[in-house]
């Protein structure tokens, strides 16, 4: 029986798998708010599902998802959990090192949360410098626009992310609780100045809106 999920393999199954490949897929997510309608584990569910689909398509082993990450800008929303960035770096590095010990030489991170990106880059450098382990990462909001230029995925718990969650598991979404947010039309000059920080700006307005809505 060919298994993809490492968590479903026995230790001998994994040992045999490592004879065929030295690459594993590792999904990483976070636990944070995604609106009234989406679950706190949205980023984790999407990363885990995407990793599984890639694993099936490539016959590569998929590690259990790491469901905690780094998120501080929306920490005041109930249920949002953030690890200290240094701790998260150490945890992720240690998680990867355990696999490296058993023959892994390449890791593909499938990331579901933008706040993890910087730490993924640091861990990738750490593992290459120490073990010459080649690490790569991919993120759905960067991939989708490459497929269709109209899919500019800058929302948080909005159209695109909710659509992905519906594809992953629509049973854990409550669309009766979905709400529209205020639209802020920024001057063009300000938009240019904020280029690259649009998501952070959007989240800041989301916090302001939530505070006043209460």
Tell me the number of helical segments per DSSP (H or I, 4 or more residues long): 8
CATH fold-level assignment of the largest domain: Rossmann fold
CATH architecture of the largest domain: 3-Layer(aba) Sandwich
Helix content: 40-55%
Q: Which homologous superfamily in CATH is the superfamily of the largest domain?
A: Creatininase
Q: Can you summarize the main beta sheet?
A: 3 strands, parallel
Radius of gyration: 19 Å
Give the integer mean of the pLDDT values.
Answer: 84
**Weakly predicted, low-confidence segments:** 186-214
Total E-strand runs? 3
Tell me the β content.
5-15%
| CA(first)-CA(last) distance | 54 Å
Following the backbone from N to C, one meets helices and strands in this order, namely HEHHEHEHHHH
Task: Please give the order of strands in the largest beta sheet.
Answer: 1-2-3
How many domains, in number, for the residues?
2
CATH class value of the largest domain:
Alpha Beta
Structural class designation: mainly alpha
Global shape: globular
